[in-house]
Write a structure and sequence with these properties.
Order of helices and strands: HEEEEEEEHHHH
Structural class: alpha+beta
Number of helices: 5
Number of strands: 7
Distance between the termini: 39 Å
Shape: elongated
Largest sheet: 7 strands, antiparallel
Length: 242
């Protein structure tokens, strides 16, 4: 499993009340599923700023220290190491499903990010077609219409007189409609040659993505798990569901 160092969140044992601008649901209400979906969408759209009391960072941008994407086996075999990343667009998720099975301790999530923009410093080495590649500099990746489907399992932990969720398993699938790559300085100062390499990657984006999809999925998975566990380490089940 490729490492993705992300989100230094300090988890505290105290439970926190939801801010008044966050919606709550009652676990016994007949339209619980619809209420939770609406509350989730409302919460996501507010995360353009951090909520430190909830262990939730700003999602506009979301800062990530490091992401590693391994070299694939196709015509673009390129090991990519990204650092000091800023990710834009996570707070614009269109939530289609956010459904808890409180008895089975399962959460099902489905949604679409219209556009995710990733800006990082990168180091890359490998081969594209017959060209050996070794470069470093600025990189920008744009993922359009990134669809996610996730089945998460959680455990319950007692903290004082409150019960908190801890997500321990995640079965995530991601599917973008398009990825655009822009790497600077693939060949030292020869940007024209770098532009041609970017063109090859963009013309073959689907193959490039599928070849290393597991690493992209792992990166998104760790982000989602960190956000959920950060939030529910502070907000108890009793607080989230009256």
């Amino acid at each position: 499993m490729r490492s993705v160092a992300i989100l230094a969140l300090v988890l505290c044992v105290q439970s926190t009340k939801l801010p008044p601008n966050f919606q709550k649901c009652n676990r016994n209400q007949p339209d619980l599923k619809e209420c939770v979906l609406k509350a989730a969408q409302h919460a996501v759209n507010q995360l353009g700023k951090p909520y430190r009391s909830l262990n939730v960072p700003s999602l506009d941008p979301l800062t990530i220290s490091e992401i590693s994407i391994g070299a694939g086996q196709g015509k673009v075999s390129l090991e990519q190491n990204f650092k000091d990343c800023s990710l834009y667009g996570f707070n614009n998720m269109e939530v289609e499903q956010f459904e808890f099975d409180l008895e089975g301790r399962v959460l099902q999530v489905k949604g679409t990010f219209p556009k995710i923009i990733i800006k990082c410093q990168y180091q890359a080495s490998g081969q594209i077609l017959i060209l050996p590649i070794k470069g470093q500099g600025k990189a920008e990746l744009v993922l359009d219409n990134l669809k996610i489907v996730d089945l998460l399992k959680y455990e319950e932990e007692r903290k004082g007189d409150k019960t908190h969720m801890k997500f321990v398993e995640s079965d995530l699938d991601i599917d973008p409609s398009l990825i655009t790559f822009k790497f600077e300085r693939f060949f030292s100062e020869d940007q024209s040659l770098a532009d041609n390499v970017n063109k090859v990657m963009n013309e073959n984006w689907k193959e490039v993505f599928e070849d290393v999809k597991a690493d992209y999925t792992e990166a998104v998975n760790r982000i989602l798990l960190s956000l959920l566990n950060g939030f529910f380490s502070k907000v108890s089940i009793e607080e989230a569901f009256d």
